[in-house]
# Entry
Amino acid sequence: MSSRITNALKKQAANRSGYRCEYCLLRETSSFYTFHVDHIRSLKHDGLTVLKNLAYVCPDCNFFKGSDIASYSVNEEEFVRFFNPRTDVWEEHFELLEGAIYGKTEIGIAIVRIFKFNDVERVIFRKQLIALGQYP
# Structure
């Protein structure tokens, strides 16, 4: 099986997500940059290039995730898998308050930290989008 993401797969992933990042919920129309298609389980961890293993993501989330699939919990005692938009429900792991995204579970907390959801620039941008009715 090829690791290449075809235009057809990219379009399917984009349509399924509603053209929004499946991690931070940013709409592609609100971004200055083209969104990416990410392997949820990365190729180096034997992930396949099939629709159920692909997520439509903003460049920031894709950059911070890289090929990672997990991280250590805040207390560094537990290895925590990353949020999987195919099997997890966003609202069960995250909550949005005044432009900031907070983790409600160990998975959510790990993603917020690793993906830098609450970097100042990202929170300010989300607040602006919320005021314009364009987020989430």
